[in-house]
Write a structure and sequence with these properties.
The chain is an alpha/beta fold. The chain contains four helices and five strands.
Length: 137
């Protein structure tokens, strides 16, 4: 709720699938991106697909937007991307615990929350909708 108070509801958006984030990234100014996710989303295939997908949208963001750096905030079980990917697309891995977004709020332009129905079991979808209602009303 602090984010809503500090940023305003217009700076928080909710999306269904990861690749939808690209529509919300700034095209005219450099930015850093923090992704709180179990998966790195930097692609799992050697070759990048033509269209962004949930597993490779970060690489597409680097190619199409002025992204300076990607921060992947994950748990202790998150598996690192291929080292060649990190050379091509700068990434810093951060641990979700004890990481806190609270300190980043003053520097944050937008918070994007993704449902990710492919990976999140349906019994948890109501929590997403609850956060959506709380943050946007």
């Amino acid at each position: 709720m602090e984010a809503k108070a500090e940023l305003g509801a217009d700076k928080i958006c909710f999306i269904t699938d990861h690749e939808e984030i690209l529509k919300h990234l700034p095209k005219d100014k450099e930015f850093n991106l923090y992704n709180l996710d179990h998966h790195h989303d930097m692609g799992y295939e050697e070759k990048l697909g033509a269209r962004p997908q949930c597993g490779d949208w970060v690489c597409h963001a680097y190619k199409k937007y002025p992204m300076k750096k990607y921060y992947w905030v994950t748990d202790e079980l998150g598996v690192d991307p291929d080292p060649d990917k990190i050379k091509e697309y700068p990434m810093q891995k951060l641990r979700a615990n004890p990481f806190s977004f609270k300190n980043l709020i003053p520097e944050t332009d937008k918070i994007i929350v993704c449902l990710s129905p492919t990976w999140v079991p349906t019994q948890f979808h109501p929590f997403f909708r609850l956060w959506q209602d709380l943050m946007l009303t």
